[in-house]
Design brief:
heterotrimer; A mainly alpha; B alpha/beta; C alpha/beta; B: alpha/beta; six-stranded mixed sheet; four-stranded antiparallel sheet; 37% helix; 23% strand; C: alpha/beta
Chain lengths: 253, 271, 185
């Protein structure tokens, strides 16, 4: 039993090393891949624009719930006017980056993993190698960069829509004063908080995109292999996101 | 670059996968300008051989020379340069699914050359015409039948005018008509373009009609080589079984198992 | 190739939305608006004994209407007072020179803000003027301390009833009443 534990540990370490080597390879190949901006642009569309609907809807609902719960909690202390700052800080620092990243892993991450996994399974990657085209540059790096660029933008959109959702519930429905909603928010939210949120979403973007393309590129070239790649993408991304969230929050404190 | 008559020279090759020896002391010489067939039972590593020739995997021992270049000595960049002189047809075509037929065939041109759009168009249409699919240029791979996608893949493989064409199991799953089409194309392309073709297959009847040279692999070695005629009368049980398609012989019908009656009569788990 | 046109349109729209959201978050939710976006203004100074947790960016209001913001909070080492800079919107240029500035709390647990109460002078505050009359922030701990002090004091008084009320020290409220009642007779 101890032997199995040791083996899983060494397997995990090996995997970690492999992933970081892959990341290095992607970074090294990025400058050249940037020359083919049309490919990256296409991937920004796939990962970002196509995720807009789910991100905006989720942002709206999360913001509205935040408005409800926040109002309920604050009015016990007579501090309903602080709803604006509570919603803004909660969204900008935590909910925006984290929820967006989780949704991204589910929607865009799985798409990336399954696309690459399928290309692997149908020999498209080998065919490219045979045609003397580096698949990393042509297919993997654009997808990676597309995700990295799309994520912070999605998180920002989520937070903004969330704030308006909280305002919708708090001001329009629950009667919090609109002026205080925004003015207290402005007084309490600092650029440092917004920066923390942006840093988080950028780090999450790198992590999720890396995990997705790694799983897809190294998927076993069978049907179950691709399926497993997509599942692992979501699960691993979720755990990594939440772990990194803690690290970054602590670092900013 | 020495113009020997062998475009591919494999000498004393050893290759092991997961501590299972795939090739031991393999020697193969593939002549220029001919269609050479590589045959053998399933699992003998025919596809692995192709991956060794194209440099996708490196041998443990021995040497492979392709068009005079020693594969082991090549850097990644030079390997890519060498690969531009080869064309490979994969078993399932391996077309890029997000590109149209035209774009698939144009892919190598767009990636490796700076040719103007007009010229690319002419080249692509010419190659598609050669495989009989010029009219399908605007279709997407998902809309093609198996035989059609393989033909498109063939057009893509020849678009850069390679010296060497490699076919990995091109006949698998094709109906008789498509099969005949591919056979005819292999022969015609080899002769009109003056190239060398290597066909990996286990369809004995089919390949015998077009091949000039045949290598029969089994147990990690070449067990027979020669023209299709020579192989038909080769004095070896292994060859006879393969060529004749016999169910039993040196490659046994039965997977190793304990005594038949013993297993039937014993109670389960009780052995 | 119209497929790539819609694609570029879509990507462009997405990227635009994203950057607009980032811009919104950095400028509209924080107190640091863009410098060129703030309306014309003038600055006033006010010194306080204690600003509590008044923050830079806290509102400055008069009669409940927000007329400006706190832009700087400094410490004067010479007289040990907090120096607060109030940036007032130029529209409100008729604040009398004898007005006072007090630090209030929004709600029970809300943030602090500065409220200006108009004085009666005919001259008005100009840029770089100082507000002379100030009242510091209400600090909860001090009030609790005061209440406890008063409480223990009144208890001590109640336990020693023979001590003449008039000679009792300045615990004004309770002592004043009997005196006034006597006088009224």
């Amino acid at each position: 039993m101890l032997r199995e534990l040791w083996e899983s540990l060494t397997d995990a370490l090996e995997a970690l090393g492999s992933v970081f080597q892959f990341l290095l390879r992607l970074i090294v190949n990025s400058p050249r891949a940037l020359l083919r901006f049309d490919l990256i642009s296409q991937q920004i569309f796939n990962s970002g624009a196509l995720s807009l609907v789910i991100i905006m809807l989720s942002g709206l609902f999360v913001g509205m719930v935040l408005g409800l719960q926040g109002y309920d909690l604050l009015q016990r202390f007579g501090s309903e006017e602080a709803l604006g700052e509570a919603a803004a800080i909660g969204l900008v620092k935590e909910l925006g980056p984290v929820v967006t990243a989780l949704l991204f892993a589910g929607r865009a991450g799985t798409a990336l993993a399954s696309e690459l996994g399928l290309m692997r399974a149908t020999d498209q990657i080998s065919a490219m190698e045979m045609m003397a085209v580096d698949p990393i540059q042509r297919v993997v790096v654009p997808r990676f960069l597309g995700g990295v660029i799309a994520m912070p933008l999605l998180a920002a959109i989520f937070s903004v829509i969330g704030i308006y959702g909280a305002q919708l519930v708090g001001v329009q429905i629950m009667g919090v004063d609109g002026g205080s909603f925004w003015s207290q928010m402005r007084a309490a939210v600092h650029l440092k908080d917004v920066n923390e949120g942006i840093v988080k979403s950028m780090v999450f973007g790198v992590a999720c995109s890396l995990i997705a393309v790694y799983q897809g590129y190294y998927a076993t070239p069978t049907a179950e292999g691709v399926g497993r790649a997509t599942t692992y993408t979501v699960v691993t991304s979720a755990v990594v996101i939440l772990f990194l969230d803690y690290l970054i929050t602590a670092a900013f404190l | 670059m020495n113009q020997s008559s062998a475009i591919v020279e494999i000498q004393n090759l050893d290759y092991t996968v997961n501590s299972r020896p795939v090739f031991v002391g393999l020697d193969i010489k593939i002549q220029r300008g001919l269609i050479t067939a590589v045959m053998g039972p399933s699992g003998t590593g025919k596809t692995t051989l192709l991956r060794l020739i194209t440099g996708q995997v490196i041998a443990d021992r021995g040497s492979i020379e392709v068009a005079g270049e020693n594969l082991r000595a090549l850097s990644r960049a030079n390997l890519y340069v060498l690969r531009r002189r080869m064309g490979m047809l994969f078993q399932n075509g391996a077309l890029l699914t997000d590109l149209s037929v035209f774009e698939n065939v144009a892919f190598p041109l767009r990636e490796h050359t700076d040719l103007p759009e007009r010229l690319i168009r002419q080249l692509v249409l010419t190659k598609l015409q050669a495989v009989g699919l010029r009219g399908a240029a605007e279709l997407m791979p998902a809309e093609l039948s198996g035989g059609m996608s393989r033909r498109v893949a063939l057009a893509r493989a020849i678009v850069m005018d390679p010296e060497l064409l490699i076919y990995d199991e091109p006949f698998v799953g094709l109906d008789p008509i498509s099969l005949g089409v591919i056979l005819r194309l292999i022969r015609r392309l080899n002769d009109t373009l003056g190239i060398t073709s290597i066909v990996v297959s286990h369809d004995v009847k089919e390949i015998a009609t077009v091949a000039d040279q045949v290598f029969l692999l089994s147990g990690g070695k070449v067990v027979a080589s020669g023209t299709p005629q020579e192989l038909k009368s080769y004095p070896s049980e292994t060859v006879k079984q393969f060529i004749g398609g016999l169910a039993d012989g040196p490659v046994p019908f039965h997977f190793p198992a304990p005594d038949y009656f013993g297993e039937l009569l014993s109670r389960s788990g009780d052995l | 190739m119209h497929k790539s046109r819609t694609l570029n349109l879509g990507t462009g729209t997405f990227v635009l939305l994203g950057f607009a959201a980032l811009f919104f978050l950095t400028t509209q939710t924080t107190s640091r608006g863009l410098p060129f976006m703030s309306p014309p203004h003038y600055d006033l100074m006010a010194k306080f004994d204690n600003v509590g947790d008044l923050k830079v960016g806290s509102p400055v209001s008069m009669s409940g209407v927000e007329i400006g913001r706190v832009t700087k909070i400094d410490f004067d080492e010479k007289d040990f007072k907090a120096v607060v800079v109030l940036r007032i919107n130029a529209r409100y240029s008729q604040i009398p020179t004898d007005s006072d500035a007090s630090i209030y709390t929004q709600g029970l647990l809300g943030g602090k803000f500065i409220g200006l109460t108009a004085g009666g002078a005919d001259t008005y505050l100009k840029d770089k003027d100082q507000i002379d009359f100030t009242q510091s922030a209400f600090v909860l701990e001090n009030l609790i301390g005061q209440v406890l002090a008063n409480f223990t004091k009144s208890k001590a008084d109640a336990q020693a009833p023979d001590t003449a009320p008039s000679s009792a020290p300045a615990d004004s409220k309770t002592a004043g009443k009997p005196k006034a009642a006597e006088k009224a007779k």
